[in-house]
Amino acid sequence: MAVLTSEIIKLAERKDTLKAIATTNHDGVPHITYKDSLHIKDGYIVFYDLIQSSQTNKNLVDAIWYEKSVAVSLLGVNEESYQIIGKPVKCVTAGAEFEKLYRELREDGEADLNAIWYIRPEKSRDNSYFTRVEYERKNHPLIRRLDMIQKQ
Length: 152
Known about the structure:
The structure is a single chain. It contains 5 helices and 7 strands. It is an alpha+beta fold. The protein has a 7-stranded antiparallel sheet with strand order 2-1-5-6-7-4-3. The radius of gyration is 18 Å and the shape is elongated. The two termini are 33 Å apart. The longest helix is centred in the middle third of the chain and has 12 residues, at 55-66. Strand 3 and strand 4 (44-49) form a beta hairpin.
């Protein structure tokens, strides 16, 4: 099964999708931020880091050095939700790709570009409420409130 399904790709590219990236610092302290600059390109999650000293960037540097995982969550307007776990594998801070994107961002306003991060997805799951409920009931039937079990 493909890690990035067509549903995930479509959801990631929609303008009205809420996108979050979760990283941890070197001590394991979580950091979650919402980023419109998350995209999917050539099978990778691509993140445009727009702030030079952002905590997300610091944590991604730590993750690439120590092969730590990060998580990306997508939430659509119809409550469709996916989580993708992956590892940063490439950081672009100069060159033709960087310059092209930098110029595009500057034309659209005062956005800066610190880095283009490539995250290799390793696994994904549908986190939509009804999908998760169905999964939990099927795989953990005894982990429920007693009144819910009695109804069956």
